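Give me the fold.
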Amino acid sequence: MKKIMVVDDNPDHLHSIKQTIENMDDDYRVTCASSGIRCLKLLENNEIPDLILLDIMMPKMNGWETFKTIQENSSWKDIPVVFLTARTDDFAQNAGSFLATDYIEKPFDIDDLKKRIEKVLKKNNSEVL
């Protein structure tokens, strides 16, 4: 079972992305976090996913800050993070692609999302072996 955490402040996006991913493959289990703070709490409670899909534009703690905190923790820094965001400016695209494992713009194509998730999980799995 592959665990994927989706972090987004929009409950409709969380529900939609969770349903989309879980319908892609019976081997995917999705945990939703409605904020960067909630994401970190789940990680602190040892709910460690195989992949984090992280929105950038969130109140209180944005995706950049959440990502930075994840990277600073030795227990979490190897979790692949894919930015999944509506932010499409050059800075977000360049920084997101450089810093994180991948960067996907909303709205996303379901087939493209599936391919990217599979690629990240396969790459991460082969690095562990």
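The mean pLDDT is 88.
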